[in-house]
Amino acid sequence: MFHVFQYQPLRLITQNSLSSMCLKLMLSRPVAFAQIWKSCFSSHSLLGKKNIILMGPPGAGKTTTGRIVGQKLDCPVIDIDDDVLETTWNMSVSEKLQDVGYEEFLEEEGKALLKFSASGSVISLSGSNPMHAAGMQHIKKNGIVVYLDVPTTVIMSRLKSMQMDRIVGLAPGISLKDVLQFRKQFYKRWFDIRVVCGGDVAAEVVAEKVLDAVKRYQDSELETFISTRSSRSGRSTEEDSNKFYFSDVVIQGLAPDGGLFVPERGLPKFTAEEWQGLIEATYVERAQVILERCIHPADIPASKLAEIIETAYGENFSCSKVAPVRHLAGNQFLLELFHGPTASFKDFALQLMPHLFAYCIPRSCNYLILVATSGDTGSAVLDGFSRLHDIDKQRIALMNFFPEDGVSPIQKSQMIGGQKENAWSVGVKSDFDFCQTAIKQIFTNSDFTGSLTVEYGTALAAANSINWARLLPQIVYHASAYLDLVHQGIISFGSPVDICIPTGNFGNMLAAFYAKMMGIPIRKCICASNENNVLTEFIRTGVYDLRGRKLISSFSPAVDILKSSNLERYLHLIANEDGQLVTQLFNQLENQGHFQLQKDLLGKLQQDLVAGWCSDQDCLAAIHSVYSTTGYILDTHTAVAKVVADRLQDRTCPIIISSTAHYSKFAPAILRALRIAEINQNPLSQLHLLSSYSALPPIHWGLLETLKKTGNGDHRVCAADMSVLMSHIETLIQNHFM
């Protein structure tokens, strides 16, 4: 009831205070009305002359929320249904709908919206207003559109209890659920801000969320990034004035001081109700909600971000669920991350990141993306950047460095076959750690990077997991996996799960930990290593020691890594953002080959992480055992995680094992695990042999196509020499941009 809020809504004011002539003036002469309105009400600083425009389906609570927001801001409140449409038509909305029918109603509603104008107000739209493009374009010009995103099942329950009889589009043969689903496309088109509303959230809470969201929208200064090697207490005035935003960190990749970018104020925290509101959502919808909260609209507007996400996770993925969760055995579940075009978890970031990058870079400069890969990143980044619009390809080139003898034959075929005129794959006669270190050194070589800018008008950027835009998309699938278990009835929201991930560069594991920080109830993060178990020993002892360690080639090459780059971000976090300590630790690692954590930090780390490793023999045995008992084939990395999970889980809660690649990519090892005596060396023949097993999952669709096209393609090979790598970089720039 209106009197509860101790102020008069617009329709009561017009009846009792201003006279009906004032409302007619608002509709016919908006400027004059705005002047009268301004003399009657004070405008809150949050709004200025802008309106807050609440949008959402019928039953979302727009009217009630609008009244509360208006009261808090001490500003006028306008309900389009009651104060505009019914006043204009001199009849109720339901009568108008019955009188003219669905299509004519939308047109009449749009015409009324086109005549309407206000400023400094809170406006509650009708549920069908967003379906009229011209009307929405008009009202959006002077407002911030806030989408109250309520789960469809909640809306249906509310409308049933309200006995609503005026749902536009509802007709015989068309269900209410169909109507609500159809309208989502229009809501997504127009909103500036999304407010996720759970089922039992009070209107007062929703109103506070709206106000917080508007404040965030208006102040991009709140979301800046710092380097892991800087600390708040030690930052200079010059550093404070040189702020980094999301767009900057996507472009730069590595911080100027050699550290990695992290959000200065941390990641957003979702409430339990907000997470529960996503249980019914699709993967794309979950990604949109999560990433909108992590990327400020000043960097990428919500509508553009939605477009990018839909492009990234649409037809490029062979499974409609994008990242499905499959029960394996007992309390173990597999998060299948291999349904993208290049058959590994890298696709989740690298189908998205190129579009983010292309949107953020200035139009006046060319960019060369540098990538180091231990196997899967190379093909994924080549595929992702190849899907950009032609106009973006003209100003973006890519160079992919990989260990020439340190990837599987199929991985190499993918990287060779994925080359384009503007994208090269270069095999380096060394290991992944050299490739990764070389790229870091190139970025911090100001003489070299400066000469590229001056001579060729070209800047360097990174697409490795050191780039923040690579990490963000990975948070989504860890959150989505938990929500899927809730949706399937395996657990109730709030029940804990463990996560086990084959871990090399620590990016995937860090993303799971970030999901935990954002409110997903993950209990333990289990790091699984192969015989390159430096990370396992570090988690157990606090000593990161590379002295005397040589990289061992294994059947799980993507985790054949000794220097885990993203560990730096995690240590910066648990060290309370002590950049000086992080700098000291990683300088010591670089110069002396080791460092040791303080006892208190090791205690914090061991509360979050546990770790184990397995041999190649144990890996192959696990593949054979799982296939024999379930008919399911694990890839070699997932098998490493399976072995470690078996050893370390306590079986008191479900454990989600990240299946990071499709077994087809590692056919020789899989055939060996299945105890095939003679293995043809031709990768295509190996895949055909595997397909004869009729196993789950089937052979990956993209790999067969890639191998058919690749044949014996050429690629560049170079020595492990910095000057040679830099020479290749200059050659590509000259060929593509000059």
Descriptive report:
- By secondary structure, the chain is α/β, with parallel strands linked by helices.
- Among the domains are: 51-218, P-loop containing nucleotide triphosphate hydrolases (Rossmann fold); 322-340 and 472-709, Rossmann fold (3-Layer(aba) Sandwich), CATH 3.40.50.
- It is 49% helix and 13% strand.
- The chain is built from 35 helices and 20 strands.
- It has a six-stranded mixed β-sheet with strand order 8-9-19-14-15-18, sandwiched between helices. Strands 2-3-1-4-5 form a five-stranded parallel β-sheet, with helices on both faces. Strands 13-10-11-12-20 form a five-stranded parallel β-sheet, sandwiched between helices.
- Helix 30 (616-630) crosses helix 32 (667-673).
- The protein starts with 9 loop residues before the first helix and ends with a helix.
- 50% of the residues are buried.
- InterPro entries: P-loop_NTPase, Ser/Thr_deHydtase_PyrdxlP-BS, Shikimate/glucono_kinase, Shikimate_kinase/TSH1, Thr_synth_N, Thr_synth_N_sf, Thr_synthase-like, TrpB-like_PALP_sf.
